[in-house]
Amino acid sequence: MPDVFKRWLYKRWLALIARTITLCNSLVSALFPCVVNAMNDVLIKLGFVPFFAQQLADPVVLESRLGRVISVQRSVAMVACGDQRRNVELTLNLQQAEPVDRPTVGDWVILDETHTRIEQVLERKSLFKRIGSGNTTQFQPIAANIDVVFIVSSCNDEFKESRLERYLALCDEAGAIPVIILTKVDLLDDAGGYIERARSVQSGVAVEVVNALDPSTLDGVKGWIEGNSTIALVGSSGVGKSTLLNALAEETLAATGSIREDDKKGRHTTTHRELYFLASGGLIIDVPGMRELRVADVDDALGHVFEDIEELSEKCRFIDCKHMNEPGCAVLAAIEEGRLSGRRLASYQKLVRENEFATSTLAEKRAKDRSFGKMVKGGKLHKEKTGRRGPL
Ligand SMILES: Nc1nc2c(ncn2[C@@H]2O[C@H](COP(=O)(O)OP(=O)(O)OP(=O)(O)O)[C@@H](O)[C@H]2O)c(=O)[nH]1
Ligand SMILES: [Zn+2]
């Protein structure tokens, strides 16, 4: 399928999702007027859709105790609740939950009756997550309930195909639509080479090119912000995420900082994740540049991002071909003939290895946690029984 057609399909797909959401909203209003009274404009501007309404049995919760997480600092979260912003604590249960189950930016949450604590996190419709940095093998949630991810990269030495492939795999796993945004196009005579390279990282992926300092170049990017959709801005420090956010918002919402001249790296100006509201509609989560972006559970996602390699490997002589030096390897033949780059195969193999290792470590950990949970439960049960026996 030609790339232009795939990009067109992506845009149509986004428009279809927006229309479906509007249609669902109308259906819910016709069928459940009380729910919809509560699903007022404010909630809808916060990105509320029927997917979340279905999880709430009590309309009172909808009216007064539902909120969207704007930012989280340790055990305190800033939550948009109606027209107000509240600093609320996480309950002890949530503080002790697995990191991935704790509230994160973009989550819909239910507060307790005093509006001082988060009681529950609603099921997410999407979640961008990575394996946390350091020695951990736990998922760290980055942004929840996002529709589109702007993967930002600049037209200079920072640009790396392998980094984009990693972001694309995480985005696919998250269940969001990826758009690669190339910034700093004003510093080049011709950005054609960067555009070509960006398009080569996933068949049909959308690529937009901007000078984030010049609002007149942003029409293509704005086309991806439909209604009250939520967008996550990800990419290395210094690529211009906060600059782009400010330009889209037409006001200074986030601080920006200069980059180092020698290696074009940023200075990690943005230090925490935060959800911002655009006056024109739409919500944007600015994510600080992440030094490490480890993947897990991206088996299917790698199949989508590296569709070309997976298609070629079906023609390899051996079904378990690793494309190292096996005879009859269709992938190596494609490299030999210049139809595939060696860099892309190396990047694919690296991600496959990393994914296999991290996914099996996670599975082991989950199994251990389950058996530990059973042991604790067993012990508690025993105590309760002993307690009840009392006088014996
Ligand atoms: N010439 C030019 N400079 C840009 C562009 N986008 C951003 N910059 C500059 O690049 C520098 C870094 O921009 P930021 O917006 O702070 O980058 P960031 O991605 O938010 O960085 P972190 O907050 O550290 O993650 C600033 O000096 C911006 O003015 C662009 O399109 N063209
Ligand atoms: Zn092969």
From TrEMBL:
Primary location group: cytoplasm
Lineage, opening ranks: Bacteria, Pseudomonadati, Pseudomonadota, Gammaproteobacteria, Cellvibrionales
Transmembrane segments: none
Listed PANTHER family: SMALL RIBOSOMAL SUBUNIT BIOGENESIS GTPASE RSGA (PTHR32120)
Residues in CP-type G domain copies: 136-293
Descriptive protein name: Small ribosomal subunit biogenesis GTPase RsgA
Function: One of several proteins that assist in the late maturation steps of the functional core of the 30S ribosomal subunit. Helps release RbfA from mature subunits. May play a role in the assembly of ribosomal proteins into the subunit. Circularly permuted GTPase that catalyzes slow GTP hydrolysis, GTPase activity is stimulated by the 30S ribosomal subunit.
Cofactor(s) in the UniProt record: Zn(2+)
Gene3D superfamilies: P-loop containing nucleotide triphosphate hydrolases, Probable gtpase engc, domain 3
GO cellular component: cytoplasm
Keywords: Cytoplasm, GTP-binding, Hydrolase, Metal-binding, Nucleotide-binding, Ribosome biogenesis, RNA-binding, rRNA-binding, Zinc
The keyword Phosphoprotein is assigned to this record: no
Protein residues bound to GTP: T183, K184, V185, D186, G235, S236, S237, G238, V239, G240, K241, S242, T243
Cofactor note: Binds 1 zinc ion per subunit.
Family statement: Belongs to the TRAFAC class YlqF/YawG GTPase family. RsgA subfamily.
EC number: 3.6.1.-
Subunit structure: Monomer. Associates with 30S ribosomal subunit, binds 16S rRNA.
Residues reported in the UniProt entry to bind Zn(2+): C316, C321, H323, C329
Domain EngC GTPase: 144-291
GO terms of molecular function: GTP binding; GTPase activity; metal ion binding; rRNA binding
Domain of life the protein comes from: Bacteria
GO BP terms in the entry: ribosomal small subunit biogenesis
Subcellular location: Cytoplasm
